[in-house]
Amino acid sequence: MEYLPPDQVTVGAYYYPWWKHHFEVTKEGYLRRDLWPRQEIRLGEYDDTKPEVISQHLEWSRQANIALWVASWWGPNSKEDRTLRNVILTHENLGSHKIAILYETTGRIKKTEGYDTFRVAGDFDYICNQEKYFSHPNYYHIHDRPVIVIYLTRLMQREGKLNEVIATVRNVCGDDVYILGDHVWGAAPKSSPGLPLLDGVTNYDVYGNAGKKRYSGQTAIDNFYQDYSDWKDLSNASGVGFVPAVSPGYNDRGVRLAKDNPAMSRRLTVDSEEGTLFEAQLQKALQLLDPTADHLVLVNSFNEWHEDTQIEPCDGNATNLPTGYTQGLEYVGYGELYLDLLRNYTSAEPASPTSSPRPSRNPSADPSPRPSRHPSTSPSAEPSKVPTARPTSSARPSRKPSVGPSPRPSYNPSISPSAEPSKVPTANPSSIPTGNLCNDDPEWRTEDKKRMSCEKLRHRIYNEGKKLNKECKRKGTNGLRAFEACPITCRECPPGPRFPTKSPSVDPSSSPSDSPTNAYCLDSDTWSSKQGRTCVDIADRVAETGKDPKKVCKKHKDLDGVTAVQACPATCDYQNCSLRRR
Predict the structure, then answer these.
(1) Mapping DSSP to helix (H, G, I), strand (E, B) and coil, where does residue 310 land?
(2) Is the peptide bond before 494 cis (omega within 30 degrees of 0)?
(3) Nearest 10 degrees: Cα torsion 238, 124, 10, 209
(4) What's the pTM value of the predicted model, to 2 decimals?
(5) Residue ranges matching CATH 3.20.20.80 in the chain
(6) Which burial class, exposed, middle or buried, applies to 534 when counting CB atoms under 10 A from its CB (0-12, 13-18, 19+)?
(7) Architecture, CATH, for domain 6-346
(8) pLDDT in tens, 43-53
(9) CB–CB of 529/561 below 8 Å?
(10) What is the per-residue pLDDT across 171-201, written as a single tens digit (0 to 9) for each?
């Protein structure tokens, strides 16, 4: 495998300066918040208008060898524009770090307005002439030309708007601007009329372009980057640069559950380790760097938590619950793993031996360390077996797969027998949220004429696609808002609602074992079918095939006649489990 010398690689990452608004105002969802148990953003739900937050992001970027942020931009004086101008570009620790603008066409050239381009001239007059972004010493240039990245130029071409958009940009900002278009999609065509209008092309949506598979597998990655190679040849033949892209995975179910988009695991295969999808992509992308495009590779993303493409550090224990969000895939608190993987592949100085370990799927497993691309002068420390909420740094991530396959993970908490013997294994109540904090109030009703219950709200949100934030602000006849009275429906639980539930239907002093709903959503780790398949095997099968879980589960029984539907509710009955009983 041939790589460029590391000092010739330019690493960029898409960066989102909108989180103060999204965390504090709109409170839009993201996967890690909705997991059971919840996984935490290392900085918490942060305010990115604070210099100390940007300072930490810059520190992590340097740790990962990221030299460029391609910052999402939604118009003059938008929250993203204000944070970029007033906080990031004025930051005392910015140093040599570069910034480029990602022009978000979906918010500026709208489908609902027939893709009218009336905002484009004013936007670029603001960028180039009024605020003079391009003249800032930290603005990114390729061959002394300021770079603007335009989202979905391929869509603009399809709608017959690309010529007009590009002509407007060059007329306002001058021909010197380097326009990098989000133009690459699928297999390379024999020709693309929009290519000569651009200076470079890339692919933002790695997930959609790669096929949206739960486990990509090496063959799919090989085919995907062969398409990239063909696009590079096509682009270079037109005198246009090419920028490959990589992404650690994808899951937007925390913010777009009603769309039911399939998740893309961060593991290459069901038996692979955390981060292996990212690693496989890096190995291919780094062979496609283009000198006419500054040997640039783009990472999607540094901090797009809504779509779970982020590499920003995240902490917490491994889980595949609730399956309504995870689709049976396991998620781990990966710490600084992706920062260190990126550095090890793109820097002459590998990550320190005190960097983040690769999280283990099975806490009892002791994975052997894998050597990095750049050998260390001293051996790595043994990685911690159990990730902590805020892990202290341990062994740095490595590359070489272990000799044998990873041990089969136990996706769920252990199972212990109930007081009354039963054929269906019962869950260990100590692993489950206790008391009345995780139950919707069955007597709560909205104060309006509809007198809607928690169950009705749940139907509106998850079946009719109504907005969770709006529905959960409804006030009840008892004075409680829906997010107080319906914590399960409104995703306030787990790990527990921000406000206590006042439900008369559950005795707060009752023990966990008294509540059948508490134990409902755990798969047994002792059950196995006549064919020897466990709940984990069935979860893997569902994740790999995308088939209806209930149809898969009905086929499997154990020697006592207990079905997988009974023994594996988190896998087999995920809609009820994740949305009503988690």
Answers:
(1) coil
(2) yes
(3) -60
(4) 0.69
(5) 6-346
(6) buried
(7) Alpha-Beta Barrel (3.20)
(8) 999 999 999 99
(9) no
(10) 999 999 999 999 999 999 999 999 999 999 9
